[in-house]
Specification:
Radius of gyration: 14 Å
Low-confidence stretches: none
CATH topology: N-utilizing Substance Protein B Homolog, Chain A
CATH class: Mainly Alpha
Number of domains: 1
Strand content: under 5%
Number of strands: 0
Mean pLDDT: 92
Number of helices: 7
CATH superfamily: NusB-like
Order of helices and strands: HHHHHHH
Structural class: mainly alpha
């Protein structure tokens, strides 16, 4: 199973929801069209998008807590949605190790982000978040 491609697809849907103001279903339908994912990968993509959207207020509040000298609404949409997706995994997916969630987010940041600084920025925010939740039951 290629969770990397499923995660990338989920990120694209979250970006479309955020920037394009699409509904979850519209965004999922759009990003899943023409993507070669298995049924389990489509299910994983849906779970990631729907879970992130369901917990969006909490995720945004937590991201803001870990930002240093930044405001969430001022982040570029790529960074904001990568942080949301990874933090959802850290908090609500006990089957995914924190290190995997962070690493996958960084790989997507390298592919879609605006700069190397963005990768370091995302890594710092997620490291601070994961450190707080280490040892806590998910």
């Amino acid at each position: 199973m290629s969770r990397r491609l499923a995660r990338e697809t989920a990120f694209k849907a979250l970006f479309q929801i955020d920037v394009g103001k699409s509904t979850s279903e519209q965004a999922l339908r759009y990003v899943l069209h023409g993507v070669n994912l298995s049924e389990s990968e489509v299910s994983f993509t849906r779970e990631m998008v729907e879970g992130t959207v369901m917990h969006l207020s909490e995720l945004d509040r937590l991201i803001q807590k870990y930002l240093v000298h930044w405001e969430l609404h001022r982040l570029c949409a790529v960074d904001r949605n990568l942080l949301r997706l990874a933090l959802f995994e850290i908090l609500y997916r006990p089957d995914i190790p924190d290190a995997v969630a962070i690493n996958e987010s960084l790989e997507l940041a390298k592919k879609y982000g605006s700069s190397e600084e963005a990768v370091a920025f995302i890594n710092g925010v997620l490291d601070r978040a994961a450190a707080e939740f280490t040892g806590r039951e998910k």
